[in-house]
Amino acid sequence: MELQPRNSIFRLAGLALCLLVPLASLAYRGGDKSKSSSSSRSTSSSHSSSASSHSSGSSHTSSSSRSSRAGSSSSRSYSGAPSHIPGTSKTTSSTSHTSSHYSKHSASGNGSTNKIHGTESNVKLHTGAGKTSSSVNGREHTGNSVHAADTHRTSTDFHHGRSAFRSETNVGDRRVARDEHGRVRDIHGHDMYIHNGVQGDRRFIVTHNDRRVVGYGVGRGFTERRYYSSGTHVYVQRTYIFGGRPYAYAYRSYYYRGWPYYHYVPAYYYHPFFYGWVYNPWARPVYYHWGWFGDPWYRGYGYYFNPYPVYPSASLWLTDYLLAENLRAAYEARSSSYVADTSQPLDTPAAGSQSALSPEVKQLVADEVQRQLDAERAAAAQPVESSQLRETKQPAEEVPAALDPKQKIFIVGTNLDLVSDAGECAVTPGDVLLRTSSTPDADNKVSVSVLSSKKGDCPVDTTSAVEVTELQEMHNQFREKMDTGLKSLAENQGKNGLPEAPNTETSPGEVPPPTADPEAETELQRQQKNAEQEEQTVQKAESASPPEKPPQRD
User: Fold this and answer.
1) Most exposed: 170, 271, 304, 476, by fewest CB within 10 Å?
2) Residue 500 has pLDDT above 80, yes or no
3) Nearest 5°: CA angle at 402, between 215 and 278?
4) pTM confidence score
């Protein structure tokens, strides 16, 4: 009988536990649901805010968006190959402002690619997921003086990978890009674009009233204007100024995949017998004495280039002519570079670098000369067709010669900066590149490798990416110099050991021969002064309000 109260107590306690455990479980689940709902609402709000901010950034960034991005970067990744940063997409208000300088028609947003083309100016600004890069064949801008108060500062950021760091600021209505050492590398003005190369060379590009002026250094560059049209074909003429002398060449302008190109057009062709004399081996090898053995450029680059001892054919003579003219241009560009290091002699190659143009690479250049001679000989054999007939035979979209599967060897014609895994370097006239890919990427670039280079240039086997338009210009300059060499052969055949040519008569080419612009040198000098003034204006503004020091790499 004494056990009954205890049993009752135990039964009551068990019943209480049975009731309390389910109630506690329900309360816990209710709390989880409340937290989940709150988190979901917060996440949804965050996504909505992000989408709103992104939508706003696709046009002009709002003031609230700008304030929320006060700590974000306006630096650009200028890359030899596209720079992809997983999980990152930045298109800042400053980048959009830059694009508005060059075109009324632009689009932006995550993953978008903007291509902005002028009639005669090659202006392109690309923004995409995790990358921002630019290539501008720009326009003239002299502008007014800029005070420090007009300078807009932005924070900086580093992008890793095969890319070059650029920190951008606004100086008045100019966009200024500096490298990690604080040096001004690019100035984007209204009508003028200035690029300072890694070796201290300066290139400026001005577009004004459908005319273009491009400068490669003091007294070196060209003026360009439209001069002829046939059907839908539009031709421009360039008047080059080198060594104080003008040279006029014609180009057909066209677009490929939305990008503007220029294709060199010979003003005249030679008789088929002359091309046969040039293309085929001569009856006996020729000993030829070049007149430039004592020239400064050859003394400087004698370690790199030596002419053939004898010439069994004109193609080998043309090979040496091409290389010599490019090396002369490299020497002149180095001499005119306003910050070039001239303390080091040119005739001593850098330790561990390619000491000379190898016979194997030189043979590849000679093979390309032979191939281009054959192409010109075939073109000369074709009758001059009417513009209507040419239109019907022309493909829907002309593929640049630089993408011809048979052409993979390119001689550098002007200084060009490359970006590799080792950083930035430059190739200069006379260096040789090998194109290693065939399909342009979203930035219109293909892969290249350095086959041969001089002291101080990108080492042999450097790999990078180059815009196809740059390779097309190398092709154009190759053909221009080859035709100049053909003219020299025609004028000097039978002299200085050269055999006599059978027939040196010429016939009209695709277009009338262009005449040199008499004002080209004056215009080039004027724009050179404008470019110097632009840089001085930027420097004065920056000195009045020093730019923020870039962060150091991790």
Assistant:
1) 271
2) yes
3) 95
4) 0.69
